[in-house]
Amino acid sequence: MPELASGFESGTAPERANELACVMLAAGGSRRFGDCKLAQPLQPGCSVLQTSLLELVCFSSNNGLNVPKVVLGAYQAKLADLLLSFEPKVKVVCNPDWHQGISTSIIAGLQAAVYQGNSIDNQDDDSDNSKPCEHKQAQQLSSQQSKQQANQQAKQDSTNQIKAVLITLGDQVAIRSDDYQRLFDAYKQSGQICASRYRDQLGVPAIFPYSAFSKLMQLEGDKGAKAIIKQAQLHGKVTEVPIANAQFDIDTPTDLQLWLASKER
């Protein structure tokens, strides 16, 4: 299939549900919050991250998808403990480069979800077994090496069954499994990038087809996937899915208090 000038191929709908991989980003340092925001309780026994992940797991299970990958970084140990109850419904991915920006978490998640066969098991006696990494490649390779290896794999692996990836955030507490389902249904119809529209903007949760993987792998610094969505939109290669729930996230203690107050009404 010829590649468009924009760098995005014409979409074709997936034939099987398990061709979609799910990645939740939860590696940030919570600078604006001042503590681990994803570990904050929203209700007894359920934190911000657990609340968000429950909906993603529900969507994934309903559609027979591979288990979602959760990318951890800054508060890895604390959050990994919270995810023990989800096993084996999720897999943890460690991003030691989280401090370099969200791009590194997108890359680590994509590598783990799509290029699993490329992962390198760490068998050294001095390895840190306290880090529940499913994807050890992120620990052992520099970011540039990881990008080059995954890009090469993308070109060579013609048998790869993952044709699209859903990227979402651990602090988007209002997202429901039905929201993910509407994105997936839109992707099955269009085969192109499907992004959430909220507050007159496009963003995540979003589904990216295989033709966009190389662009995701080339992200750098604290740039997320919005730039890729915007570029594709200019070429008419984005399906917009209105998802009002995507506008709610937890960045500050005030955000958390407002969310908790709204649930008490």
Q: Report the sheet with the most strands, covering strand number, pairing sense and barrel closure.
A: 7 strands, mixed
Please give the alpha-carbon distance between the first and last residues.
53 Å
Uncertain stretches: 1-15, 117-143, 154-159
Instruction: Tally the beta strands.
Output: 9
- Rg calc: 18 Å
Query: What proportion of the residues is helical, as a percent range?
Result: 25-40%
The secondary-structure class comes to: alpha/beta
Instruction: Please provide the ordered H/E string of secondary-structure elements.
Output: EEEHEHEHHHEHEEHHEH
Share in β-strands: 15-25%
Order of strands side by side in the largest beta sheet?
Answer: 5-4-1-6-8-7-9
- Broad shape: globular
Count of alpha and pi helical runs: 9
Average of per-residue pLDDT values: 79
Structural key phrases:
265 residues, alpha/beta, 7-stranded mixed β-sheet, disordered N terminus
SSE layout and pairing:
Elements: E1 20-26, E2 41-43, E3 46-47, H1 48-62, E4 69-72, H2 76-82, E5 91-94, H3 102-114, H4 137-140, H5 143-156, E6 164-169, H6 177-190, E7 193-198, E8 201-209, H7 213-217, H8 226-234, E9 238-242, H9 253-264
Parallel strand pairs: 1-4, 1-6, 4-5, 7-9
Antiparallel strand pairs: 2-3, 6-8, 7-8
Helix pairs in contact: 1-6
Task: Give a written overview of the molecule.
With 265 residues, the protein is an alpha/beta fold. It is 35% helix and 17% strand. It has 9 helices and 9 strands. The protein has helices spanning 48-62, 76-82, 102-114, 137-140, 143-156, 177-190, 213-217, 226-234, 253-264, and strands at residues 20-26, 41-43, 46-47, 69-72, 91-94, 164-169, 193-198, 201-209, 238-242. A 7-stranded mixed sheet has the order 5-4-1-6-8-7-9, sandwiched between helices. The protein has a two-stranded antiparallel ribbon with strand order 2-3. 44% of the residues are buried.
